[in-house]
Specification:
2 copies of one chain form a homodimer.
Chain A: E1 8-10, E2 14-17, E3 37-41, E4 57-63, E5 73-74, E6 85-86, E7 99-110, E8 113-117, E9 126-132
Antiparallel strand pairs in A: 2-3, 2-9, 3-8, 4-7, 4-9, 5-6, 7-8
């Protein structure tokens, strides 16, 4: 069994530039009216973008920097009339490791800037990773 | 623009118990013959599992602890005849923040142990998060 007290360090590879600035008014999912947004990558990781093309569907992983990490159960979708549920059974941003997972479509790749459709993350949210959605896997 | 030198700290919420012990022989995707595996959660996060049921499809997020983080371009699927490609356009485990994203099916929930189908992560891989795959989103 591994050491349960280990820690790992994340370094953002970029950040979100979006007109969404307020958690209360942001859509809860990208399919619920998220505007177009830009991913602005650090210059040092630009080679990692090689091969991304408009039309590609990818997962963007973010660090939900405004989320409390000590919440283990929530009312799904902030609806107080819904019974409490474990955060691992919800997509609440409040969770021990607040990593956001966002399926988006790439619209444009311009140097270290990538324009996407369907991203509900707030302006300035740190970006951790981008992964293509594979044919044949859930998400294709 | 946010501070590009910020860092974030991840704390594992559990680990993988699997018969897969060797990166070279492990399947590259969970659909490519991954065995059943157990997720063993830390006792403190057990409330976060409330509501997970057999048959649920979830994403498991892991920390790919054996992966180098300074690789920005790879030959997809370790095939040297394929041109180099940016890691953000591949699912290579080698990437700046080596977070693994694994769609799996829950088979059994037993206290702090959850048995899953379709997980290609190696034995002892740290688990960071679990998220349900939502109806209507890619992955449903």
């Amino acid at each position: 069994m591994p050491d349960s007290h280990q820690e790992f360090t994340l370094t953002p590879v970029g950040h979100v530039s979006s007109t969404l600035t307020d958690r209360a008014s942001a859509p809860k999912q990208g399919t619920e009216g998220a505007p177009e947004a830009w991913l602005i990558f650090e210059p040092v990781v630009v080679p990692a973008l090689d091969g991304l093309r408009p039309g590609d569907r990818v997962f963007v992983l973010t660090w939900l920097h405004l989320s409390p990490r000590d919440v283990l159960r929530v009312h799904p979708r902030d609806d107080q009339s819904t019974p409490l549920r474990g955060v691992f059974a919800t997509r609440s941003p409040d969770r021990p490791n607040p990593i956001g997972l966002h399926p988006v479509e790439i619209l444009e790749v311009a140097g270290r800037r990538v324009r996407v459709r369907g991203l509900e993350a707030l302006d300035n949210t740190p970006v951790l990773d981008v992964k293509p959605i594979l044919p044949g896997e859930p998400g294709a």
